[in-house]
Amino acid sequence: MPTTMRSFVAAIAVFLFIPATHASAQHRRGLVDISRRDDRHGFWLTIGAGAGSENYRYTNDVGCNAVIGAYQCDNNVKPSFTLALGGTVNPQLRLGGEIHGWVWDHFSSSANEQVTSYLVGGLLTGQLYPARKMGLFVKGGLGISRSGESFQYSGNAGETGFAYLVGAGYEIKLARTIFLTPTVSMMRHISTNPNDVQDLGTFHERLLSVGIGLTIQPGR
User: Fold this and answer.
1) Which of 57, 93, 176, 200 is most deeply buried (CB count within 10 A of its CB)?
2) What is the pLDDT of residues 68-101, one digit of tens each?
3) 92-144 tens-digit pLDDT
4) Domain boundaries, the chain
5) For residues 169 and 180, is the Cβ–Cβ distance under 8 A?
6) Would you identify the CATH topology of the domain 44-216?
7) Is 69 left (phi over 0), alpha (psi -120 to 50) or beta?
């Protein structure tokens, strides 16, 4: 084969071989390389605790400063808790379910026994992150709630009703899958007692909570 022809064939071979080799290398790297996921994704779980300020009112009863339908003057600040989990629609939206509650264990002089007062809500929630690269979020939820008292000797009393929640928080990254999450929220409980012989009207209870949680994002 003439020298010119051999040079031409060699040039063609190099031209075809190099791109194939490069593409093969890219393919191999794609099989073994796992890119770092710094965004919000997949399943998440939050466990939190804090302080909750509880208050209540009846629409037809006298509240603070003798005002009909007003909340009581005193707020009961006691422990509150949160357990939430769900999935991530995209880096700016998380959906899930949440149990949010408050409890107060005390001695009642009028009943002459130990009483545990509580408010617990089970809600479907959404968390919206206005900025993709920031941990700030706002949240809202709807669900059912139970407000009541458990007496040491004389049983239980309470009402099941409708609940809604609004709040905000911030995710502070501690590790790839772990976040510290301070939050502030307000949950309202609304119910009506069918045996309301005193005509007190609709019962409203609110819980203002400030707390901190641990959010875990374990997988894709």
Assistant:
1) 57
2) 999 999 899 999 999 999 999 999 999 999 999 9
3) 999 999 999 999 998 887 778 899 999 999 999 999 999 988 999 999 999 99
4) 1-33, 44-216
5) no
6) Porin (2.40.160)
7) left
